[in-house]
Design goal:
The model has no long low-confidence stretch (mean pLDDT 94). The N and C termini lie far apart (32 Å). The radius of gyration is 15 Å and the shape is globular. It is an alpha/beta fold and 166 residues long. It is built from 5 helices and 6 strands; from the N terminus they run βαβαβαβαββα.
């Protein structure tokens, strides 16, 4: 059994039109949401064995803030393949994961994350910025992952919904 966490980056800023999309930082709302989701990771006992993160600045910042809030120190691999990644790209990245890793987190972007989630669960779900998804796959080895792999959606947390329950 393998667990996959999908984490969309926090809300990013468009205030500097000279910045490339890849280099946009988080807005204050994105910073707050990233920290909030880090607390959720801690409270839910979700500790990834490996994190695969987009090279985009907003993904880096989201991950750093969440891990600080969660008190998690784990292996992180940054890959440009996750910037504007599609479902086939996610499958390819997962197939290459070392099988000793049971819980893997991907930090990425829409629309790719939503499309991938829909493909592996058969459910269309909205993933606003800083949303976190927990999936379970009946796989003994990540190398078995392909575009036909199906997972079970265990949890979907959206920052604004969490704030309403507190």
């Amino acid at each position: 059994m393998k667990t996959l966490l999908l984490f969309r980056h926090g809300k990013s800023s468009w205030s500097d039109p000279t910045l490339a999309d890849h280099d946009r930082p988080l807005k204050p709302r994105g910073i707050k949401a990233a920290r909030r989701m880090g607390v959720l990771l801690r409270d839910q006992g979700l500790h990834p064995d490996l994190i695969l993160c987009s090279t985009a600045l907003r993904a880096h910042e989201t991950l750093r803030l969440a891990l600080e809030a969660a008190g998690i120190d784990t292996a992180i691999e940054y890959t440009g393949q996750l910037f504007h990644c599609d479902s086939a790209g996610f499958a390819s990245v997962l197939r290459a994961v070392d099988n000793s890793k049971t819980v893997v987190m991907i930090v990425g972007h829409n629309p790719g994350l939503e499309e991938f989630l829909s493909q592996v669960t058969g459910r269309a779900e909205e993933l606003p910025t800083a949303a976190l998804v927990q999936l379970s796959f009946d796989l003994s080895d990540w190398s078995q992952f392909d575009e036909s792999s199906r997972g079970q959606l265990l949890n979907l947390w959206r920052p604004r919904e969490l704030d309403k329950t507190e």
